[in-house]
Amino acid sequence: MNQEFWSGKRVFITGHTSFRGSWLALTLQKAGAQVFGYALPPTTSPNFFDVGNVSQSMTSTFSDIRDAQSLKSALEFAQAEVVFHLAGGGGLKDSWSRIPDVYSTQVMGTIHLLEALKETASVRAVVILSSDKVYRKEVGASSFKETDPLGGNEPAATSKACTELIVESYLQGVFAPEKYNKHKIAIATARMGAVIGGGDFAPDSLIYQLAQSCQAGVDLPLRNPDSLRSWMHIDDAVSGLMLLGQSLIEKGPKAVGPWNVGSGVESMATVKVIKQAFVNAFQGKPMVNIAESPGRSVHGGLDNSKIEGNIGWRMHYSSEQAAVAAAHWYQEYYSM
After folding, report:
1. Where are the domains of the chain?
2. For the NAD-dependent epimerase/dehydratase domain, which residue ranges apply (predicted)?
3. How is domain 7-195+233-260 classified at the CATH fold level?
4. Which residues touch 228 (CB under 8 Å, ≥6 apart)?
5. Are 244 and 186 in contact (CB under 8 A)?
6. DSSP character for 53?
7. Residue 34: strand, helix, or coil
8. From 6's CA, which of 58, 79, 90, 298 has a CA 20 to 30 Å away?
9. What is the distance between the alpha carbons of residues 270 and 285, in angstroms, rounded to a whole number?
10. What is the pLDDT along the chain (336 residues), one digit of tens a residue?
């Protein structure tokens, strides 16, 4: 991540009050960028947007991404060069209880943004947050490439797959790479998995539940301890988004399209390994290795060869290191 590149840049973030959005906004501010945010108010108390004083040095508009006119006005006011579209996120489990809301937020929110870009002359780069769950689950598949077919099982996943198709259609028409000299906008999607780190206060977050249990001195039972998943630290997620945004400015049409920005198979870990790493770090004990039992469920990882070879992004935290770093953050938080 090149901080000098971001110094003085005007950046617009949708969903800036979320966990990922707040960390992205704060990191950009520290790099010297002028940050503008558009989102609903934080949905939890506490939340990192308030805890981290993210709003202190930025301009925020609190509104719904489905309000096309409000979004357009905020984007015009920002006169941003780079846009990060993070709004519309949500957990896989709760998406079943709000299906219409999930699809309208993801699909129409993205369409409203893309339509507003037609009339916003300042924007040069757009990074749209997607998910590692957009891939169709094939039997025996353990790692997904950007060229693999889209699918998804839950509304949160299939709505992201719909968004990917919408972006692809705009890249075939309005913002086609071969017409770049006319529209001057490069658009990419960042397919990213679960992100962990300090400041995640979502009630269903494993890391936050572990932090609460450690602080209270009680054990947190695990429902699926042997589930093998990909984990990414928030610092790696933010650096991936920022590096992709920078590449869109520097490479233009050569950087458009989908990019895997996540954990590969080699960095996956079971839920109980993450728990043990977090608990030991929080309590100040040395980390211990845990034997993994057979028959565990496996969530596919991402093949990052494209972004590693073309842009140079790599993860700096292993799954266990990410859990340890998160534990240290919550230790400091509870000691304040």
Report:
1. 7-195+233-260, 197-229+264-299+316-335
2. 11-248
3. Rossmann fold (3.40.50)
4. 268, 269, 270, 292, 296, 297, 298, 299
5. no
6. T
7. strand
8. 90
9. 20
10. 678 999 999 999 999 999 999 999 999 999 999 999 999 999 999 999 999 999 999 999 999 999 999 999 999 999 999 999 999 866 556 677 778 888 999 999 999 999 999 999 999 999 999 999 899 877 556 789 999 999 887 888 899 999 999 999 999 999 999 999 999 999 999 999 889 999 999 999 999 999 999 999 999 999 889 888 889 999 999 999 999 999 999 999 999 999 999 888 777 899 999 999 999 999 876 545 544 444 455 566 899 999 999 999 999 999 999 999 999 999 999 998
Tokens encoding 292: 């993994």
Residue for token pair 């075939």: 172
Which position has the token pair 């799954």?
319
pTM for the whole thing?
A: 0.94
Domain covering 197-229+264-299+316-335 in this structure, CATH number:
3.90.25
- Which amino acid, residue 212? Q
